[in-house]
Design goal:
Number of strands: 2
GO molecular function: proton-transporting ATPase activity, rotational mechanism
Number of helices: 4
Distance between the termini: 79 Å
InterPro entries: V_ATPase_D (IPR002699)
Family: Belongs to the V-ATPase D subunit family.
Organism: Escallonia rubra
Largest sheet: 2 strands, antiparallel
Protein name: Vacuolar ATP synthase subunit D
CATH class of the domain at 14-193: Mainly Alpha
Length: 260
């Protein structure tokens, strides 16, 4: 892209130059702030990525242990343990709520698990397998906690990814498009103002020369008029012609110069 196409189409005046300079200052500050925001979001993005990796690794172990605990409960309590548990459960004891966390102006969703009220041991009266069912319940509670944490991390991960992409696009636009265009516009306006200043200086010199010649012409005309007046006066006093009076005055002036 040529420099001509990377500047604004403006009228080169001092007022416009001040406006464009103010816009360049604002673009520079905005670029610095967005760059800092992008760095902060990238740092948070990497931290969340590390947490996701570690959480997924631990989730494999927890899900394996919970599945094994379910197998033990079915083996001890029988295959119909699912129906017995459903009959004894009336409301969920483990619930999830959401909140938002502000990171460099970006609102990240966070999910948290909490226990509502006291957990009742509804399966205590089972004829058999009560201990294994409780162990299975505890294993799956841990699995739910890990899943909630992983869901929160992945949601924040995707939100940060979109925010970083948007911020980087703005940073690149300011750095590669807006700021060069404003700088080229300022250079263009300064060049045009310098050219106008040179034209004004040349115009003033021409006007000054014209006034000087006009003054010299007026002085010469006044001098000629005064000489004609003196020649006419001498001609009338001496009773001679104008040419003779003029020659007489010229000779007198030369004699005075010689005597002097």
């Amino acid at each position: 892209m040529s420099g001509q196409s990377q500047r604004l189409n403006v009228v080169p005046t001092v007022t416009v130059l001040g406006v464009v300079k103010a816009r360049l200052v604002g673009a520079t500050r905005g670029h610095a702030l967005l760059k800092k925001k992008s760095d902060a979001l990238t740092m948070q993005f990497r931290q969340i990525l590390k947490k996701i990796v570690s959480t997924k690794e631990s989730m494999g172990t927890i899900m394996k242990s919970s599945s094994f605990a379910l197998t033990e409960a079915k083996y001890v309590a029988g295959e119909n343990v699912k129906h017995v548990v459903l009959e004894n459960v009336h409301s969920a004891s483990l619930k999830v709520r959401s909140r938002t966390e502000n990171v460099a102006g970006v609102k990240l969703p966070k999910f948290e698990y909490f226990t509502e009220g006291e957990t009742k041991n509804d399966l205590t009266g089972l004829a058999r397998g009560g201990q294994q069912v409780q162990a299975c319940r505890g294993a799956y509670v841990k699995a739910i906690e890990v899943l909630v944490e992983l869901a929160s991390l992945q949601t924040s991960f995707l939100t940060l990814d979109d925010a970083i992409k948007t911020t980087n696009r703005r940073v690149n636009a300011l750095e590669n498009v807006v700021k060069p265009r404003l700088e080229n516009t300022i250079s263009y306006i300064k060049g045009e103002l310098d050219e106008l200043e040179r034209e004004d200086f040349f115009r003033l010199k021409k006007i000054q020369g014209y006034k000087k010649r006009e003054m010299e012409r007026q002085v010469a005309a006044a001098k000629h008029f005064a000489e004609e007046q003196v020649v006419g006066k001498v001609s009338m006093q001496k009773g001679i012609s104008m040419n003779a009076a003029h020659n007489l005055l010229t000779t007198t002036a030369k004699d005075e110069d010689i005597i002097f």
